[in-house]
Amino acid sequence: MSSPADLRYTESHEWVRLEGDIATCGITDHAQQSLGDVVYIDLPEVGDVLEKGGSAGEIESVKAVSDIYAPVSGEVVAINDALEDAPETVNSSAFADGWLFQVRVSNPAEVSQMLEPGAYDAMVEESGD
């Protein structure tokens, strides 16, 4: 597996693409594969203030319901409305069209503390999931 080089990752399998002070957030390809077919996603609302590591919503698959954790702290400025009608987009395009929400980052240092692609890939490989 090779995770996109322009992203940063959490140990709980979320990713962040930082552009200025806006972080686009989603779940990794590994996470969507582990979940199986995604059937519903409960996203935060625009204006919600998230704390790094806190709950940002839930993702439901045919196998399980899993929490989505905020990879960074900040205010939600956009959500991917397309997922309401097509949550399976997360399965087919986890790193692009399947993004979940965008946050105006309140502490940019949190992004630099996240895993780089090689470290994330090694963690996933070691876990044997």
So how many helices? Answer: 5
| First-last Cα distance | 12 Å
Whole-number radius of gyration? 13 Å
Largest sheet: 6 strands, antiparallel
Proportion of strand residues: 25-35%
Residue runs with pLDDT of under 50 for 5 or more positions: none
- Give the SSE string: EEEHEEEEEHHEHH
Query: Helix/strand-derived class?
Result: alpha+beta
State the oligomer: single chain
Instruction: Specify the helix fraction band.
Output: 10-25%
How many individual β-strands? 9
- Average pLDDT level: 95
Strand order of the largest sheet: 1-2-3-9-8-5
Shape descriptor: globular
Tell me what the structure shows.
This protein is α+β, with helices and mostly antiparallel strands. 23% of the residues lie in helices and 34% in strands. The protein has 5 helices and 9 strands. The protein has helices at 29-35, 82-85, 89-92, 109-112, 117-127, and strands at 8-9, 14-19, 22-27, 38-42, 49-50, 55-61, 65-69, 74-79, 101-105. The strands form 2 sheets. A 6-stranded antiparallel sheet has the order 1-2-3-9-8-5. Strands 4-6-7 form a 3-stranded antiparallel sheet. β6 (55-61) and β7 (65-69) form a beta hairpin.
Write the layout of secondary structure elements.
Elements: E1 8-9, E2 14-19, E3 22-27, H1 29-35, E4 38-42, E5 49-50, E6 55-61, E7 65-69, E8 74-79, H2 82-85, H3 89-92, E9 101-105, H4 109-112, H5 117-127
Antiparallel strand pairs: 1-2, 2-3, 3-9, 4-6, 5-8, 6-7, 8-9
